[in-house]
Amino acid sequence: MRMLLQIAFIVAAGYGALVAAAYFAQAKLVYFPAVGREQVATPAQMGLPHEELTLRTKDGVRLHAWYVSVPQPRGVVLFLHGNAGNISHRLDSLAMFARLGYATLIVDYRGYGRSGGRPSEEGTYLDALAAWRHLTAERGIAPEDVVLFGESLGAAVAAWLAAQVQPRALVILSGFVSVPELGQEVYPFLPVKWLARFRYATADFLKDVSCPVLVAHSRDDEVVPFRHGERLYAVAPGPKSFLELQGGHNEAFFFVRPEWERSLAEFLDSTRPVR
């Protein structure tokens, strides 16, 4: 009996240490700013005219951003990327939007790329808000001409922003319902929903979004299961569309495939304001 109690104590202590480590290491599990911290290329290398920008957030953090222009734009995309890499890893997406006739503002969150500060959930929301203010207040672009595009973690940030402002449309690529829900699936042996200090509650944000929404997700996504995309589509009030993709979560640049690029173009054109 004494041996059994000792074994039980060791197991309990080990599990407690694992739970504590998971609680305090959450930021390292959510954010990967060190992955591709260096800028590997610029839009100019793809023949895309752009401006180097420094945006300042409400709490004083300086963010690095690019504004890629096109002649006679059909609108402007505010691009909010995922939790790894930086804006220089999204050049194919910038080229795709240019082909579709859209200018793009893409910004690195605090702690990513050449941006200052350290990443946090509230910080990423402030970063998105600073990018929105730059477009609408500083450049004078009408909100109904701005499309929010978020991939993975950026999908949660974009959904949060869409619930605060009135954009033309919202595109959710490979989004998850929430960090606690996804984390519980990834680590079923841990009480993630109790431990989670990060929420990124995409589904909750979507309930307060009034603009048209496109949810795009792949059945092959090995990081964020397809059912997350289905649930996000279900909770979006509408008007809404769903686009089923193929390929893994990190199989870059989904929309450069012609059939999906056409679907995205059709959705964006359907949301253009009548003037």
UniProtKB/TrEMBL annotation:
Ranges for domain Serine aminopeptidase S33: 72-186
Keyword Hydrolase among UniProt keywords: yes
Keyword terms, alphabetized = Hydrolase
Name by which UniProt lists this protein:
Alpha/beta hydrolase
> Which Pfam families does this chain map to?
Hydrolase_4 (PF12146)
Per its UniProt entry, which superkingdom is the organism in? Bacteria
Question: Would the keyword Protein biosynthesis turn up in this protein's UniProt record?
Answer: no
Q: Give the GO molecular function terms.
A: hydrolase activity
